[in-house]
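Internal tracking record. Fields below are filled automatically when a chain is submitted to the structure queue. Please do not edit lines marked as system-generated. If the sequence contains nonstandard residues, flag them in the REMARKS field before resubmitting.
Queue: standard
Priority: normal
Entity type: single polypeptide chain
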Amino acid sequence: MSVPVMKGITAKTIKTKRITSRVLFCGPEDGIPVLFLHGNLSSATWWEDNMLLMPEGYLAIAPDQRGFGDSDPEQHIDATRGLADLADDAVALLDELGIEKAHVVGNSLGGNVVYWLMADYSARLKSVFFAGAGSPYGFRGTKDETGTPCYDDFAGSSGGLVNPALIKAIREKDMNLDNKLGLRAAMYALVFSSNLISLEREKALMEASFSIHLGEKDFPGDSVQSPNWPYVSAGNWGSVNALSPKYHVDVKKIYNAKNKVEVIWARGEHDIAVADSAGSDPGVLGKMGLIPNYPSDVVYPPQPMNKQIRRFLNDYAKAGGSYQEVIIRDLGHAFFLERPRQFNTLLNDFILRIDKKIEVLGTGGK
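SYSTEM-GENERATED OUTPUT FOLLOWS
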């Protein structure tokens, strides 16, 4: 990938015990670490604006995650582990950098990776900032706030539902906005909600998105035929299948974790990528007649993702954690890109407060 970095960002190739990848840095090497995890169909490039706005004394770190950007193309996501591969990769990166604990920020799929960090590596976290995170119960194929599947085989949560025209547009790096089935049009339909991003910056973001690894073990991944509508279920490989509720994180491990950090759940008011009626949810598309033979709203309703996240966080609070929900008005899924200063005001105030509290507790205060 040849996407140039913004002034003030340093790109390095880092080899850990698990994977070799491009990692972006901003800030002093001995600064307080903040790990940024990007979403699907993107890369570390998407975080550069926010990395440049971190407080003095902080080190922003953003890797190209497995399956994306300049990560090792021979290393694939084992979807049967959910997103545990990416969580393990993130901790391996912290190990390689000699970092014991970090603040962690996750957008979309990156937010789902953070759930796995909370479950398996809670001791490595200082705080969690969800920026338009997905549901802890995965994406597609569930029908209530506790993630009950529409079918026992989790039909509908599959790489097999990705439109081949989208794959073609990615492979050809088609920037034509008139191609309604292309990636750029999909971004404007589901991710960008305004014209606040400059054309120059958008070009870099799209180049980063085109860098997703393609294939049956990458994107869109493989699939399994199902007798249940929409007749495909999750396969074993790639980020789309890894988001299937078939492989979702064990939320009980999060509730039972000894280290329960403070959480902010920030989301765009007009986010339709992660929503109770998401724009790419088969339940929504079926009701619109865009996927034939829709069974009914009773059998396969749109997944209530925001309700699922809120229920999870309420249960997390009951188990001893804490969270705050913040709605970013007038923006959608990529609000951190469209209004980076507003986003960083929220993020920076949060981590500064957390670190001040840690400092006071560390000196015996309460």
